[in-house]
Design brief:
The protein is 38% helix and 20% strand. The chain is an alpha+beta fold. The protein has 2 domains: 133 residues, no CATH class; 129 residues, 60s Ribosomal Protein L30, Chain: A (2-Layer Sandwich), CATH 3.30.1330. The strands form 2 sheets. Strands 2-1-3-8-9 form a 5-stranded mixed β-sheet, with helices on one face. A 4-stranded mixed β-sheet has the order 4-7-5-6. The protein binds iron/sulfur cluster. Iron/sulfur cluster binds next to loops.
Length: 325
């Protein structure tokens, strides 16, 4: 099936491995749970915002968002009619063994995307950018994406699925060292003014900020920061954690409320991730993830048991490592 005798020999040597059928079945379940069930950390923060919002119209909007979360679970239907673009994050243990290898893993994730587009159903949003050709299954050129990270000394694999749109709320700016924190704050305010003013990010939203690296790295980190950390989680560097809290305060005191209405409930959280950059620059990416936070994680063990959870645990100490080890 996989084309090489060497691979078959390798498989026989292994007594335990994560099976392709386990990955397929659990990935279907992951997509279903992500589309329907709001994570508790998000729900609890929206409840707090609704209880504290002083603008009556904005409080009403937040209450309707909470009603919508409950209706989705009761009806087993997606929490938003726009089910976004499914994407995957795979964190693979250095000792993990996957039946069929990485090619089989990617095939299972594509199959699960197509299957659940039909079964939940998800809106088949993915089209060819020129011809607008649509396979009606959210699968196509470079879709869905799978991003990878690795973890030492473990034999499990985590798969996180995120359903995120991508039309609005994403920006990039090349700042310079002299711009510093004030420049970052200005970019943050410009970005939320651009999108939150018109409700284009369907806020309250989590604002992910990637600082440093290169253009592609800071944009990638900003998306991971928006999608793969729990609301309330702070960066492990105290200085960055303090800046996250300062920006939450700034964002919720700039006059923006939920869905473009005035108020103080626009920012669910701010998550910042940093990467070492060229000494002459400070590139910054910003991504906003709406109140319909579709994310779920499954951990696959070699005995083919699967544990589902809400915390992606993507930013491990190893993932954020600064040294050669
Ligand atoms: S931004 Fe979020 S809440 Fe708004 S339409 Fe898209 S998925 Fe739905």
């Amino acid at each position: 099936m996989y084309g090489t005798d060497r691979y078959e020999e390798f498989m026989e040597e292994k007594d335990v491995m994560i099976r392709a059928e386990t990955i397929l079945a659990a990935s279907r379940e992951l997509n279903t749970r992500a589309a329907i069930e709001i994570p508790k950390d998000v729900q609890q923060k929206v409840e707090k915002m609704a209880s504290e919002e002083t603008n009556p119209l904005s409080r009403y909007v937040l209450e309707k968002i909470l009603d919508n979360y409950e209706t989705a679970i009761k009806d087993r239907s997606p929490m938003c009619a726009d089910t976004g673009l499914p994407r995957y994050y795979a964190k693979i243990g250095n000792q993990a063994s996957i039946e069929g290898g990485m090619v089989a893993l990617e095939k299972s994730l594509r199959q699960a995307t197509a299957d659940t587009t039909a079964s939940i159903p998800l809106r088949p949003n993915r089209v060819h950018p020129f011809s607008r050709k649509d396979h009606n299954n959210n699968v196509g050129l470079h879709a869905p994406t799978v991003d990878y990270s690795f973890e030492p000394n473990v034999d499990w694999m985590d798969i996180t699925v995120v359903h995120k749109g991508g039309l609005f709320g994403g920006e990039y700016r090349m700042l310079f060292p002299a711009d510093g924190i004030p420049g970052l704050k200005r970019f943050f305010l410009d970005s939320i003014a651009e999108f939150l003013r018109r409700g284009m990010s369907c806020q309250p939203a989590v604002i992910g900020i990637g600082v440093g690296g290169t253009k592609d790295v800071c944009v990638r980190l900003s998306k991971e920061a928006a999608c793969l950390r729990l609301v309330g989680d702070r960066n492990s560097e105290p200085e960055i954690a303090r800046l996250e809290e300062e920006l939450i305060d700034l964002g919720n005191n700039a006059g923006f409320g939920p869905m473009g209405f005035p108020g103080k409930s626009a920012v669910l959280d701010v998550h910042i991730e940093a990467a070492y950059a060229h000494t002459g620059g400070m590139p910054v990416g910003i991504q906003q993830f709406c109140y319909a936070q579709r994310r779920k994680t499954a951990r696959f063990f070699p005995d083919n048991t699967v544990e589902f959870r809400e915390d992606p645990r993507w930013f491990t100490p190893y993932y954020r490592r600064e040294t050669i080890d």
